[in-house]
RNA sequence: GCGGGUGUAGCUCAGUUGGUUAGAGCGCCAGAUUGUGGCUCUGGAGGCCGUGGGUUCGAUCCCCAUCACUCGCCCCA
């Protein structure tokens, strides 16, 4: 910490970037609101146990990716690495389990102690939705469609592909996992070092290995579809048929998997090739075992999360800030008039820039730079007869206008 | 956590086969224009050449370390 600098993997959001983020959040809130989701705000830290229980002690996430600390009271706390666990905790601790289904939208900062890359920060921001208490495929359809609608509203849907897969129910998944362990175990010599480790920890993950040798083995691996029982097949068919009926385009990716046991049935990701290795833009799935794993009742859930930074890199149609009216006083009388006029116009709803110093030329220059649409030049001569100079900064035209009815003259620059 | 690349002005980047005062464009400030922006012209400010150590008569340049950024891997709840 020799120099004054932000902590690694964190960054400041200056007004322009902040506006892009806000646009994404507000679009997500508005669109999800039409689906019946209401915003929930949970604390940005929880007892470490909240996240540990949902992840399993041995996982990489717990061992190296959580921001964990002990507070002055000796409590083990963790900055939230994701939103789902917090929302489920809120559902349980807030007694909302009697009021189902529950539909939440959330947004805000998340924290993961990772090596930063493009679109991957240690403090980053997500939007997400969770639909709890509905175990029907209609819920999956609604959640996925809501995600697609939000992506569409911010102009990124066209540059993404929806990949979707099923993990089946517990019975199907365990049967498939056993088959994979048999298959890859028989070819362990040919697996990459990473995948030999996955074989013991998380065999499903071998399916999306990036190693060429692994991929050749994966091509010959057992197919999940052969291990899905009838109930799992029916569920997945209902989801995909629903998406078809709504015109939501998707691509079946049999390699798309989730590692943890409480995931089941639908897994999906909207991916893009425009962001290097961080191609996942919005991802989610069904997690029927999670709430129970955390110590609550058996409540099914489905949801997704999306990284705002990544969305911001792709988003289009972010509104420019409103163009201000610039006030340019000349002389002491002008200064006094500008002070009160700025206040009056702001209360009337105008965005007003009040240059703080300099002569007329300098202030006009600054007005042009901040994008002012018009300037009011307040000179003693004009003020003496109750008037100001109104300058159209785009057209370069200028006219004298009465001060007491200046709102009428400014209306066309609003 | 592992591997590759890069750190020179506010920004984008040149440059020095190791040698006196390190450059450009853009931006910024001032003047031409004492009450009128954009265009133009003139001038100016702004650099521990990321940081620390080493080699050398001499290091922005070579070596080592460190920090940061960046790309990929692991991981991605």
Described by its quaternary structure, the protein is single chain
Pick out the low-confidence regions: none
The percent of residues in helical segments reads 25-40%
Counted by DSSP, the helix tally is: 15
**Name of the CATH superfamily of the largest domain:** Bira Bifunctional Protein, Domain 2
What is the CATH topology assignment of the largest domain?
BirA Bifunctional Protein, domain 2
Total of domains: 2
Shape: elongated
The fraction of residues in strands falls at 15-25%
Strand order in the largest sheet: 1-5-6-11-10-9-7-8
Indicate the structural class: alpha+beta
Rg, alpha carbons: 28 Å
- How confident is the prediction overall: mean pLDDT? 90
Q: Specify the CATH class of the largest domain.
A: Alpha Beta
Description:
With 414 residues, the chain is of the alpha+beta class. It folds into two domains: 15-169 and 229-314, 2-Layer Sandwich (BirA Bifunctional Protein, domain 2); 325-413, Rossmann fold (3-Layer(aba) Sandwich). 39% of the residues lie in helices and 21% in strands. The chain is elongated. The structure holds one RNA strand of 77 nucleotides.
Per-chain topology:
Elements: H1 15-34, E1 38-39, E2 45-47, H2 48-55, H3 60-65, E3 67-70, E4 76-79, H4 84-93, E5 102-111, E6 123-132, H5 137-153, E7 161-166, H6 170-186, H7 193-201, H8 212-219, H9 230-246, E8 251-252, E9 264-271, E10 280-286, H10 290-293, E11 301-307, H11 308-314, E12 325-329, H12 331-347, E13 352-354, H13 360-369, E14 374-378, H14 380-384, E15 387-392, E16 398-402, H15 406-410
Parallel strand pairs: 1-5, 7-8, 12-13, 12-14
Antiparallel strand pairs: 2-4, 3-4, 5-6, 6-11, 7-9, 9-10, 10-11, 14-15, 15-16
Helix pairs in contact: 1-5, 1-11, 5-9
The chain binds one RNA strand of 77 nucleotides through residues 1-3, 5, 8, 51, 54-56, 59-62, 64-65, 81-82, 84-85, 112, 114-118, 120, 194, 197, 205, 210, 258-260, 263, 276-277, 280, 283, 287, 305, 328, 330-331, 359-369, 372, 375, 377, 379, 381, 389, 391, 393, 396, 398.
